[in-house]
Amino acid sequence: MGFGRVHRLFLQVMLQRRSVDESEAQGLLGNCCKEYGEAMQELEPFIYEVNKELESVELALKTTVEEREDGDYPCLVLVNLMTGEVNRALSPFSQQELNFVQLLVAKLVTSNDGEVKMNTAINLCLLIKQKMKVSACEKLIERLVEDKWLLQTTYDSGDVYLSLSSLIVAEINTYLEETYADDIHKCFFCTKLTFKGYQCHQCKVAMHRNCAKKYWQTSKKANSCPSGSCDAYLGPVSSPASPSKRSRVMSDSSDEMEEEEESMEKEEEQKPVVQKRRNSLRRGKEKVNYEEE
Ligand SMILES: [Zn+2]
Ligand SMILES: [Zn+2]
User: What InterPro entries does the entry give (predicted)?
Assistant: First the structure.
């Protein structure tokens, strides 16, 4: 079956939304089929059909993973294949705004866990050549979050952090690979970029939290590095918040390791409470580091 009215309707919605969770995409397709009284279609072959049509206009639907604070979410994004660079990807923005976005992307990509504190992000506006007012910068960030280029997370401590959305990662993937080859990590399993996943401190293998979890569920060597020649221990299976942080902490400091292990034990019985505690612990620590800089 070729490109028809259901495909067109689905595409119209994706042009507006740009990014939807995969579970939602299936429901959306169901609604589009219903709209025209057509039989339900499978998402994967449907996307293939849409992409054949989109090729000539250099757009594509891509399935990818969004790394949110509470886990990895499979999602579907509509990307512009003509944009190899941040500049063109975000063409509705002024040059000054694009300069800011470039600085922010650099900061996020080179951070330990793919996150930058809101205040740190806003202060970047003082570093661009053509200086930007703080209020303008705040508005720009708001717009970037609204348009799904950035994810904004508020922790229990009240701290607000920004990270890259799956949409921007997919859209500027080539730019990231060319500009930050030494700073970015591809998942050992799905080969997509990961910023919040596990990273082996011995062999540098990286993997998404979800990909690691799936692997460890079937692997004989639970919680170990999947690389053939490396058996490094990478941490517990159920790790809601920033495991990369944990593996770094574990190799750096024995005091903090005990603290982490203690909270892991409690997590068994009281998961939500412990997660909150861990977030605030983690944020507290980062705050100190930040002020020392
Ligand atoms: Zn993966
Ligand atoms: Zn390893």
Answer: C1-like_sf, Nse1, Nse1_RING_C4HC3-type, PKC_DAG/PE, WH-like_DNA-bd_sf, Znf_RING/FYVE/PHD
